[in-house]
Design a protein that fits this description.
There is one protein chain. This protein is α+β, with helices and mostly antiparallel strands. It has 3 domains: 2-318, 6 Propeller (Neuraminidase); 325-411, Sandwich (Immunoglobulin-like), CATH 2.60.40; 425-523, 60s Ribosomal Protein L30, Chain: A (2-Layer Sandwich). Helix content is 18%, strand content 36%. The strands form 8 sheets. Strands 1, 2, 3, 4 and 5 form a 5-stranded antiparallel β-sheet that branches. Strands 6, 7, 8, 9 and 10 form a 5-stranded antiparallel β-sheet that branches. It has a 5-stranded antiparallel β-sheet with strand order 15-16-17-18-22. A hairpin with a 2-residue loop joins strand 13 (176-187) and strand 14. The relative contact order is 0.06.
Length: 524
């Protein structure tokens, strides 16, 4: 009887722990997590513990150097990002790796004390390690063994079993720069048995970063395709050294990849001009070889299941991308020369209105008033706005599901005046979504802030009286943050915007709920 009770409570404890793990894992794909770790500076590499509670990454600063930062998942949310002051130096500290248990960090640095490059006598990048001692990290030291050389050693990563170290070695000889992926076996406390990682012979790309997969056989790599060297791309390579998948959704320079779970990876890319972290789904990778070389029956079954999922997604993608352009008919009684009309077109790779734009451009119609703009197969949503001042506000949203190929007629009218007025942004009941009718105003606000770079703004969020005090405070903060993130997406520095939530404040003059669900904009 006693054993059964122990088994019962052990099962309950395990279910609670698994439930907590799922909550943390889900938080990684939440917008608030990416908001925490992305900033106005480049974020370039990252690593996370096995329980998904400690996230470490490298980020550049205004000096031109990179440092290490971290955030922890506590009390149901991710802490504010903080520098790893025990590890950082006055030089570059980059490409961190944290062990599954969170007790060991490896990273690369060109701080004094390492080896110097034999050709230009500069300080090379070497791999350092530090061990966690309670709340603090030990003083970084050069990794033991035959790892560090006069070349640059970057992107360290230890295999799942803890016995193999992988890293990239950047070799510069006779003006020929190349990257070699190295693996080293651990002997005692030192890394000694060094070899070169075997690269697929039919893989027409130079591999720059190698990360052994945790949740599936094989590895994720960053490589530069020889037929398209302008972009670094993310690939998945299985244990048979057959390159299976390439991430193909967006033309972006992808410089780092790390696995989050079986179906999610986090990648650093310059999608919006700066290198930021994005979450990518494994099924967004394109198959370009067969699965016939899988090692055993289970691998074959898993591969076939993945292939079916990929095929289904590609079939849907093909269906949605039957139109490869948008067509706009511009009509106006006020412009005799339609070529002087400017239309702003913003492209998104997601139907999610909270997603970041891929790119934007200013287009003008031909003499007949038509605008035909080609779009990539990855584009899911398009936002159309006035491209210059003097036009009456408008906003059109086109989606692939709604049909991008049909001709959209836009009537251009002059605005009543050029003076810009600050006004609140209102929200629907229990919502933080920005209404389409407010998009033109927010882009006028963007232009105003760009033209007045010395100005800063406060965004004060409010709610109606429905609900608890805590719920109203939360939603008022989120509404202010939503406006802030929209402005940041289009280039306004975070440091110029402060947000605060006030919840519900009674107004005896005008106590209509709709007027309380708002964000006030205060210019300073």
């Amino acid at each position: 009887m006693k054993n059964k009770i122990i088994q019962f409570f052990s099962l309950i404890l395990m279910l609670v722990l698994l439930s907590g793990y799922d909550v943390i894992a889900d938080s990684l794909t939440d917008e608030s997590f990416l908001m925490k770790i992305n900033s106005n500076d480049d974020v370039t590499a990252c690593s996370i513990t096995e329980d998904k509670s400690y996230f470490v990454f490298s980020m550049s600063d205004k000096r031109g150097y990179s440092s290490l930062y971290f955030t922890q998942y506590k009390n149901g949310e991710w802490d504010d990002v903080q520098p790893l002051i025990d590890l950082n130096s006055d030089f570059d500290d980059v490409s961190p790796y944290i062990s599954p248990d969170g007790r060991l960090i490896l990273f690369s640095s060109n701080r004094p004390g390492g080896l110097k490059n034999r050709f230009d006598n500069r300080q090379s990048y070497d791999i350092y390690f530090s061990k966690r001692e309670g709340k603090y990290w030990s003083t970084p030291a050069l990794l033991f063994g035959i790892v560090n050389t006069a070349y640059d050693e970057l992107y360290p990563f230890i295999s799942n079993d803890g016995k193999t170290l992988y890293f990239s070695r950047l070799i510069d000889e006779d003006d020929d720069l190349k990257t070699v992926i190295i693996k080293v076996k651990k002997i005692g406390d030192s890394w000694e048995d060094i070899r070169t990682v075997e690269i697929p012979k039919n893989f027409n790309a130079d591999i720059l970063v190698y990360r052994e997969a945790i949740y599936r056989p094989g590895a994720y790599v960053i490589a530069r395709k020889k037929d398209n060297p302008d972009y670094r791309r993310m690939f998945y390579v299985d244990d048979t050294l057959t390159p299976l998948y390439e991430n193909y959704l967006i033309d972006e320079d992808q410089i780092f990849v790390s696995e989050l779970d079986k179906n999610k990876v986090i990648v650093s890319s310059n999608l919006n001009g700066k290198y930021k972290f994005f979450i990518r789904d494994f099924r967004d990778f394109r198959e370009f070889n067969s699965f016939s070389n899988a090692k055993d029956t289970k691998d074959i079954k898993d591969a076939k299941d993945d292939k079916k999922a990929v095929d289904a997604d590609l079939k849907e993608e093909k269906k949605l991308s039957s139109a490869n352009k948008i067509s706009l008919m511009i009509k106006s009684d006020y412009y005799s020369d339609k070529s002087k009309i400017k239309i702003k077109v913003i492209y998104f790779a997601s139907l999610d209105r909270n997603s970041w734009p891929v790119k934007s451009e200013i287009l003008s119609p031909d003499p007949s008033g038509m605008i035909d703009s080609p779009i990539g197969s990855n584009i899911q949503r398009v936002l159309i706005l006035p491209g210059t001042s003097g036009m009456k506000e408008f906003a059109y949203e086109l989606t692939k599901k709604g049909g991008l190929s049909s001709v959209t007629t836009i009537k251009i009218e002059p605005s009543s005046g050029n003076e810009f007025f600050i006004k609140p942004v209102y929200f629907s009941y229990n919502s933080t979504d920005i209404d389409m009718s407010d998009i033109p105003y927010l882009h006028q606000l963007l232009d105003f802030l760009r033209d007045n770079e010395h100005l800063k703004i406060d965004l004060n969020g409010y709610s109606d009286s429905i609900g608890s005090y805590r719920a109203n405070m939360d939603i008022s903060v989120k509404r202010a943050e939503k406006i802030k993130e929209y402005l940041v997406k289009f280039g306004i520095e975070r440091s110029r915007i402060k947000t605060k939530g006030f919840g519900y404040l009674q107004d005896n003059v005008n106590d209509i709920p709709q007027y309380h669900r708002r964000v006030d904009i205060i210019v300073k």
